[in-house]
Amino acid sequence: MIEPLSPRSLSKRVEKLIDSITYVSFCYTRRGLFERHKIIVTTMLTLRIMIRMGKLNDTEVNHLILGKMDPNPGTMPEITRSYLNETNWACCKALESIGYFHQNNLCSSLDVEHLQWKRWCDQEKPEMTDLPKAFKDITAFHKLLLLRSLRPDRLLGAHDLHRRADGRALRRAGALRHDGDVPRVQQQHAAVLRAVPRGGPHPASREYGQ
């Protein structure tokens, strides 16, 4: 006859099961990805973990993913047409719905400091370049939002830099552990990955999910 586990042993057993299931799910997902999609999945995973940790705002993350635009952006100042198009302007107007960009009057700055902004937008790698003075204290994530609006062609490279930096920060904070080159997410930050191995989920996995 199998003796029931004590509450302490049961808690440890459940923690190990969650850790194992998360690890195996991540491995299945990673193996089934095309190389060009891996950065997208790891970025989404990092963002979800950071939302759970309270380091990022869910609304701002959705703004980054959806690339929101203001449907009625108004007339774009003539002087900004030398380095922006109508789509850029609509995206920047939508960005002003986010506190940081509203407080720093992003669209007004694009007009008043147009020479500095044009210089920044014309850079080969703007993600590596300092922004105009009004935005010198910008966070790495808000810089991603800005790139999404002004230089979407550089977003992938900037995502990679942000993901790597946040991955190191999460490991220092204890949110991630490494087994080889695969991150293992601890119980309190376990991510839900919508990935099903070939042949469908095991009945035990289905029961665990319910």
Commentary on this structure:
This protein is mainly alpha-helical and 210 residues long. The protein has 2 domains: 13-53 and 175-210, no CATH class; 56-162, no CATH class. Helix content is 57%, strand content 4%. The protein is built from 10 helices and 2 strands. The chain has a two-stranded antiparallel ribbon with strand order 1-2. A hairpin with a 2-residue loop joins β1 and β2 (182-185). α2 (35-52) packs across α9, α4 (86-95) packs antiparallel against α8 (140-150) and α8 packs antiparallel against α9. Mean pLDDT is 78; it is low at 173-210.
In short:
The protein has 210 residues and is mainly alpha-helical.
Fold topology:
Elements (H helix, E strand, L loop, with lengths): L6 H25 L3 H18 L5 H9 L19 H10 L3 H5 L2 H7 L1 H8 L18 H11 L4 H19 L2 E4 L2 E4 L17 H7 L1
Antiparallel strand pairs: 1-2
Helix pairs in contact: 2-9, 4-8, 8-9
Descriptive key words:
single chain, 210 residues, mainly alpha, 2 domains, two-stranded antiparallel ribbon, 2 strands, disordered C terminus
